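Anyone? Bumping this.
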Amino acid sequence: MSGFRTHFDNTGGVGPDDPAGTRIDASTIAELEELAARYPEKRSALLPMLHLVQSVEGRVTPAAIEICARILDITPAEVNGVATFYTMYKRKPMGRHHVGVCTTSLCAILGGDEIAAALEQHLGVGNDETSEDGAITFERVECNAACDYAPVVMVNWEFFDTMTPKKAIELVDRLRSDEVVVSPRGATITSWREAERVLAGFPDGRADEGPAAGTQSLLGLKLAERNGWRAPDPADVPAPSQEEGK
Amino acid sequence: MSETTKEAQALATPAADPQAGALAAGGANTNTPDAALALNRNPLSRQIAEADPATLVSVTIDGIEVKVPKGTMIIRAAEMIGKPVPRFCDHPLLDPVGACRQCLVEITDDGRGRPMPKPQASCTTAVMPGQVIRTQATSPVAAKAQNGINEFLLINHPLDCPICDKGGECPLQNQAMAVGNGDTRYSDVKRTYPKPIPLSAEILLDRERCVLCSRCTRFADEIAGDPLIELAERGAVEQVAIHDGEPFNSYFSGNVIQICPVGALTSTAYRFRARPFDLVSTTTTCEHCAAGCELRVDHRHNDVMRRYAGDDPDVNEEWNCDKGRFAFVSGRGTDRLTHPLVREDGVLRPASWPEAVNVAVDGLRAAGGAVGLLPGGRLTWEDSYAWSKFARVVLGTNNVDFRSRPHTLEEAGFLAHAVAGTTVADSVTYKDLEKASGVLLVDLEPEDESPIVFLRLRKAWRKKHLRVWTVAPFLSNGSRKLGATLVPTAPGGEARRIEGIDDDLDLGSNGIILVGERAGASLGTLTAVLRLAERKQARVAWIPRRAGDRAAVEAGLLPNLLPGGRLVEDPSARIDVQAAWDVEHLPTEPGLDADAILGAAADGTLKALVVGGIEPTDFRDPADARRGLEEAGFVISIEQRLSEVTERADVVFPVSLFEERNGTFLDWEGRERPVHQVVRPHTLVDDLRVLVALADALGVDLGVRDAAAAKAEIDQLGRWEGPRADAPTESYETVEQVGERDVVLATWRTLLDAGRGQDGEPLLALTAPTPVARISPATAAWAGLDGDAVVLRTDRGQLAFPLVVDDTMVDGVVWTPRNAPGPSVAEHLGLVAGDVVGLAPAQATATDDSTGGVA
Amino acid sequence: MTDTLTPVLSANWGDERAWKLSNYERRGGYQALRTALGKAPADIIGQVKNANLRGRGGAGFPAGVKWSFLPKDNPNPVYLVVNCDESEPGTCKDIPLVMASPHTLLEGVIISSYAVGCHHAFIYIRGEVLHVIRRMQQAVREAYSAGYLGKGILGTDFDLEVTVHAGAGAYICGEETALLDSLEGRRGQPRLKPPFPAVAGLYASPTVINNVETIATVPSIISNGVDWFTSMGTENSRGMTLYSLSGHVANPGQFEAPMGITLRQLLDMAGGIRHGHQLKFWTPGGSSLGILTDEHLDVPLDYDGPAKVGTGLGTKALQCFDETTSAVRACLRYVEFYKHESCGKCTPCREGSWWLVQLLARLEAGKGEPGDIDKLLDLSDNIAGRSFCALADGTATIVKSMVNYFRPEFEAGLHTPAWELFPYEKTTAWYRAGAVAESGATA
Ligand SMILES: Cc1cc2nc3c(=O)[nH]c(=O)nc-3n(C[C@H](O)[C@H](O)[C@H](O)COP(=O)(O)O)c2cc1C
Ligand code: SF4
Ligand code: FES
C-alpha cells in the first residue's frame, strides 16, 4: 500500500523551464499585478498568482517564480518555498485534466484504493503522473470534504461522488475523448487550466451550473420535512435564557 | 567518562549559544589568553545588572530561585544559572520559533498554583512570576520528552559523524550523548537525498543531516535581510533550498555554517580539511575593516584552517561578514615576501637584513629631512604608533599620512576636531546605534563599507523601529534592508543637501549621524555634518573602512596630528609628546598630506618615501601615485607581499601577516580590539620591528621594541585633555558644470571586490555582486540607453557595464563599484566619486564579453 | 422539547437555485443584516456571547468571547477571516453549506464584521473545491451589486470589502495561524502564540478567525434571538449544528440537529449501518480526536459528551466503520494523512508521523516486529503534547485510541497481513455479500 521512497531526487524546487520559454506575457503580468493589488499587502496575492500562473503555464515554472517574486518584491527562494509547500501547485507539466482519487482512510476503505488502482492500471500511470496521451494527470488526493459521498473522485477539483472503479474508468475515458462531462455537484468540466484560472479569482461564469446540493447533503433536510421537524418558532420559545455577560 | 561529565561537557555553555561552548567541550584547544572573558558575556546577566530590580520576575528553576526581566524566555534564565536546556532551533539572536521541540521542560506551577498539563518549549515560554520550572536535570517528564525528541531527530540522521565536519563540535552529537539513547529503536528506512548540493559557491548543504531548525533561513531573513535560502516542500521532505540560479550570495552567508547545529551546512573551502579536536582556537580581531569583529581563528600545524565569528555582544554579537570569515589566504601565495630585497642595477634581489637596513639607512640619510611616509590604513595601533614616532623622532618630519584614498585638508581637520583623542567612553557605540531614535548616514553604505554596523542598524530597525535616512545617490539594497529613507544626493552635492535637510529629517532626541570615509573627499560635507549635528543635537561618528584607520588617527598618522589627538601646531601638546618621547624638539609645522607627499616626491621636493601597505589604485589618481613612487629618489617599502609599490622600491622589508602578530586595533567606536598571534611567524617581524631596526641603524632609539612596549607607552601618553582642534569650516562648491552626455560618477567599494586582502579565495569571489552601472530612468532616456549595457568614458578610456535602470537613482549620476575585478573605474578611467564621466550605449557585442570590461 | 432535526443553516439547501441572492432574499435573507445594522456593534457581540455560540471549527471556543478579546486601542485595522479550509478527515459540512447557500455565510460575515469593526473580511476556502469557490465568488459579486457590500452598506456608514481567497492544498492551513501565514502569501506553517490573532493576526493586526458554520449561524441568532438559540441544545452546548454522517452507513449525509443528539439517533435516521453489518468504530469529531465504538452510541454529541469518554466533539464528523474494516489499515491510512499534511515545522510531527507510517505499514503487511505495539504507543506519547500545534496531537490520538480499542488486531500484524484478516474488497461501498466484485477492482 504505502511505498517508501528513500531518495528524494527531484525535490526542493520545480522542474526546469520549457526550452521554448515561458508563456507568461504582458497580459498575464497585468493580471498578476491586478491580483497583487486586491490585497492590503500584495504578498497575500501569491497563492492566487500561482494559480493563475498554472492556468497559463500548465504548472509552476522557474520563470513564473521569478516573475511573481519581482511583482511582490520578495525573493524567488521565498516563492519557491510557497510553491513547493502546497500540493495543488504542480512542478511537472500537467495533463489536460487532473483526476484526483481520495485515498484518505474513509474513502480508501470505501473503495478509493480500488478506484485508484484501477485508474493507475487503466491509464498506465503512477501517482502524480500523466497519461501518455497527455489527457489525464492522476493523483491520489487527501480528504476532499465530501466524505458522505465516499468514495470521491475529483476532476479538475469538481466532485464526482460515490464512484466505483467502473464509473471512474468510464469517466476518464470520456475525458480523454473530449466528451462533455458534467459534475453531478458542479459544472461542465472544462480543463484543469481553466479551473486554475477560476481559483486565481477570474470567474468563468459557470457558478449557476449544477444543483445546490446532492442527495446526501439534503438527507437531514428531507427527513425533517417528511417528519415535520423544524427549529423552534422564535415567537414561541419555551424558556428565557439566563442573561450572561451583561 | 561518567554520565554526568558527559552531560556537563555536552551542555556546558559559557557563551549564550551552546554552539560556542560545544567546541570547547568537544576538546578543541585554545591559546587565547583571555578566553575566560567569554564567561562574563552572558547578555542576560548584563541585562539584569542594568535593570531596575523591582521590575524583575522571580521564578524557580530546578529549585533555584532566579530573578530575570519580564519577557525572558525560560531557556535563557535556565542557562544563566547553569541549567542549560538542549536546543536546536533556539538562538539568542534570532526570533523565537519553537520548531525543534528539543527544549521541553516541565512547569509544575504556572505561577497561579497550577501545573501545566504538557511539557513546554522553554525557548518560547516567557517567565511568569512565581513559576516553578523543572528541566531535564530534575524532571523525569522533561527528560522523557527531550529523549523522545532526540530520538525523532536521529531516526533520519545519517550516522556519518566520523566523516562529518561537525563531528566533535556538534550540538546534535553532544545532545544525543547527553539526553539520547545508547542504541536505536528505529529499524526502518532512512530518508536520503542526493548530496551535497551547493547553496552558493561557498556553502554546501547535506539535506539528510539537516534537523530543520530553520536557524539558517531565519538568519538570512531576519539578520542579513537576504532571504535567498528558504524552506521548501513540507512534512518529512521539508528542506532548505535556494531558487535555482539564485545562489545564497549574501555578504553574511558564512554565519549559517556556524549556527547550523549539525553538519548540514559546510564550507566548501574547509570541508573535510580538519577535525575540530585537532584545531587550536585563538581569539583575535578581524583585520578586514573597522567593524572590530571578534574572530575565533582555528589553526592546525601552523596553518589557519578556518575563521569563525567570535562572540562579543558589544561589537559583532555572534556574526561576521564573509570577507572576515573566508578571506584569509591572501598572504599565503607565491607573492609572499620572505626576505628583504634591495635594488641593484635596476633589479630587486634578495638581501640579508643587515644589508637591507644599511641600504635603507643610506637612502634616508641621503634624503636629509625631505622624506614622506605613507603607512596605509591596515596597521595595528602599535605599528601605527611606531610609524608616527619614527616620522617625528627619527626623520623629524610631519609628512606622514595614512590616507591612501581621496582625501582633503578638511577631513584632516575634521578628524582632529571630532575623532582623534576620543575613546569608546565618549564615542558613539554599537549599543548607541541600537538605542538611537534616528540615524542619518552620510556617504556611508554600511552593508558594503562596515557590515557589522549594517547588522546593528538592521537589528535596531527590526526590533526598535529605528528610523534611518541616507544621503546617497540611490537607495541601495542595503539601505532597503534598513528601511532607510533616501535623501537623494549626487556626489559632490552632499554639503548643500545637508545644509537644507532640516525639515526632512526627524532624528529625534537621540539622533546619530554616521559619516563614511567618502565624506572626507567631498568638499564641505564634514563641515556641514558638524553643523547639522549641532542644530539637531545629534552625535556624530566617523566610520572608516579599514581596520587600522581609527588607530592611525589616534597614533597621529596625519600631517596635523601627534598621538592621542594632540595638534602638531599646539605647543603645549608638542611639549607633552616631547616629554613622553624624551626628545628636545618635534617639527612644529603640519606636514604634507598623502597626495601632496606623492606630488612632492614626483617633483623632487621630497627625496625619499617610506611606504607601508598601500596600492596606487587606492589614490585619487593612480597615475599620480605611481609617478610619485617612480620619481622619488629613494623608496623603502615595508610589505607582506610583492606589490606595485615593492616593484618601484629600492629596499623592501618583509613583514608578518596579521595572524602572526600581536597588537591592538581600534574599531570605529574607538574600542580596543586585541589582535593575537595565531600562528608562529615565518621568521618575520612586524612593522614596528623594522622601524626599530632602521632607527637603531640611524642612531636613534625609538624607545619601544615590541608591541607590548608600544602599547604601554601609548597608554601612558594617554589622550590629550587640552583644547581640541576647531571644527573645519569648509564651504561647499557647486558641482562642476557637466557637459552634454556627461554625468557625475558615484562609486564606492563593495564589500567583496578586487581588494588585495581577498586574493586567493576564488569561492568568496564567486559570491560577489556582479559589477553594474546604475542610472535613473530619466538619465537613461536622456543618454539614449535602451540596451542592457552602458559604456563609461573619459579621455583615458572607456569601460562597459551591464546597465541597471534604478528608479531611486538621482538624475545625472551613474554609479559603479569602485574596485570591481577587471579594469576598474579608478585605474582605467582615473575616476573618483564626483568626477564627470561620459555615457554611451554599448554596442551589442561589447556587452557579452565585457562585464565591467574594456569596451 | 425541540424537534429531532432543526434545519436552519440547511433549511434552503433544497430550494431551486438556493445560491442566488434573489432566492436567498425571498426566504428572508439579509433581514438579519438590516436588524443588525440598526443595533450597536457591542450589542451584537453581547447577543452572540449570550447565545453562547461556540466555535464549530473544532475547538468550541465561544465566538462572542473571542470577539471581545480584540484590543480597543489598537490603531491597526481589524480583520475578519472565515476559515473554510475544511480538510479534517470526515468533515464535510462547510463545503456543502457554501455550495448551496453562500449568502448564509456572507450575511454572517457582514454582520460579524460590523460587530467587530472590520472593514475587510477574507473567506479562505480550500482550493480543491472549485464549484464552491465559484458560488462564493458570485455571491460576493451579487452582494456588492445589491449594496450589501462596499461603501455605505444599506445606507449606513458601514463599509466592508470581502475577498474570497482560494487555498492551494494543505490541511494545516485550517489551523488558524497557519491560515493567516497562508493568507499572507507564505508557507502555511503555524505561528507562535502569543500573540494571539485577536491581538496580532493578519498583517499583525487584530484579527477574528472563525469557522464557516460559526459565522453562518450568527444571522439566525440576530433574527430569532438569543432565547431561540439557547432553547436548542444542551447546557454548555447551545443551538443547532450540522452533523456529518459518513462511511459504512446505509444513507450517509448531513443532519442539522440541536447539540447533544446521539449517534444512535442519527444512525436510526440514516437507516443504520449498511445492510448486514455492524458498527465497529466511529469518529465523533474527525480523525484527530480519535475513535469510539458501539459502546458509545448514546454519548450525547455536544461539547461535553465525547470529552467525557476521552475524545472530543471536534467537527462533528461521524465516520462510521463496520466490522469488515481492519483497524490497522484504517489507522495506517489516517496516519498517512497526517504524515502527508504535516507542515514539517516541528520534529515530533514531521519525524514521528514518518516513523509511525513505516511501522504501521509493516503491521498491515503482517511483518511487525516484537515490541512494535509498545513502540507505537510510546512514539505516540512522545508526539502527543510535544508538538508545535494540534495537528500532531491528532496523529498521536488516532494511533493511541485505535490501539486502545483494537490491540489484538495490531498484534496480529506481527504475523498476518491485515488484508487476510479483513479482505479489503469487503469494505468497499459497492460490496454486496455474495455478489461478484466489480470489474476486477480488488486491490
Ligand atoms: C490541524 C488543524 C486543522 C484545522 N482545520 C480547520 C478547518 O479546516 N476549519 C476550521 O474552521 N477550523 C479548523 N481548525 C481549527 C482552527 O484552528 C480554529 O480553531 C477555528 O477556525 C476557529 O473557529 P471557530 O472558533 O469558529 O471554531 C483546525 C485546527 C487544527 C489544529
Ligand atoms: S504539529 Fe508541528 S509539523 Fe505538525 S503541522 Fe503542527 S507545527 Fe507543523
Ligand atoms: S530550542 Fe526550543 S523548540 Fe527548538
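Late reply, but here is one note on the structure posted above: Chain C has a mean pLDDT of 96.
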